[in-house]
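Bug #77: duplicate submission created two jobs. Keeping one. Sequence:
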Amino acid sequence: MLELLQVVMRWLHIASVATLIGGIIYWRLTLTPATRPLAQQIQDDLEGNATSAFRPIAFTAMVCLLISGIYNILSSTGHSTFYHTLLGIKLLLVGHVFTVTILILQPRNPRRTRMLTGVMISGLTIILISAYLRRIF
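Kept job's structure:
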């Protein structure tokens, strides 16, 4: 039964990361450039609709990441100082992603494109650190 819980929590964590960071990457690299040729009012309306649609998905992914992440940290003990240093950096980046994602989802955010870029870079860095930690430990 414990193995099943571990598999479910790992799946939940990976699926939530894919949903949140994948959505941010899609928004920044596809949706934002696709709306540039449109009239400003249409851009604003489309961006507002996209924000409203993505908000519950992003918040659900963040809650699932918190739950599964806390579980994963508490169930994995006995690591080196180096591991904990990288984990600390990863968690700081997670804080950045969560905070800026909440700001991105605010209506009529004039700095949204820049913020999306920052979250995309931080999210991909988190995935890189996670892959490294998984590989060496």
